[in-house]
Write a structure and sequence with these properties.
about 170 residues; alpha+beta; single chain; about 15% strand
């Protein structure tokens, strides 16, 4: 098993998957367990994850993101929704508007790292028609889709993309 820093360095957005290689149930379970350990505001876990394993469900999802054709190629798609109602009592409007989104996106990032640790690849999809995703998944009004993560065995290993230097993104005071 890789250490954490190797896992982080090996995470790349993969948009081509081996279509004949399903994600094993134990690997999916490990990913979802990692998701549930993600930090969240007040430990409320103000998110809900939809796991799309059937080709039909992924085709419908791709209809909401037509330029993301790899959604149907990947054997698995995870839709991370912010649960806008869950933090309301404890945190008010800021919890609903911000903390729920943060919780869902942190959970999605944990899913991506867990996928790498399991020998899989993923891509973050943020450009989709929100209303269409809500309708296709029949989401309750308090659930807001914020990210889709495609997961599968890579059919490509993209070269690392250039990163900004630390002094461009970090200010030390």
């Amino acid at each position: 098993m890789w250490d954490f820093f190797q896992t982080v360095r090996h995470r790349h957005s993969v948009r081509r998957y081996q279509t004949d290689m399903p994600v094993e149930p134990e690997k999916l379970h490990a990913i979802l367990e990692a998701v549930s350990t993600a930090p969240s505001a007040g430990d409320l876990q103000s998110y809900h994850v939809y796991v799309l394993t059937t080709p039909a469900a992924r085709r419908r999802l791709q209809d909401a993101a037509p330029d993301q054709t790899f959604i149907t190629e990947a054997p698995l798609a995870l839709v991370f929704c912010a649960d806008r109602e869950r933090p309301r009592e404890r945190f008010g409007a800021r919890g609903c508007d911000l903390f729920a989104t943060q919780d869902a996106t942190i959970a999605a990032a944990f899913a991506q790292l867990a996928a790498v640790a399991a020998g899989l690849a993923s891509a973050w999809i943020g450009r989709f028609d929100r209303d269409q995703v809500c309708a296709q998944l029949e989401l309750a009004p308090h659930l807001d889709p914020v990210a889709v993560i495609s997961v599968g065995y890579p059919a490509e290993l993209p070269a690392p993309t250039p990163r900004r230097r630390l002094d461009e993104v970090v200010t030390r005071l």
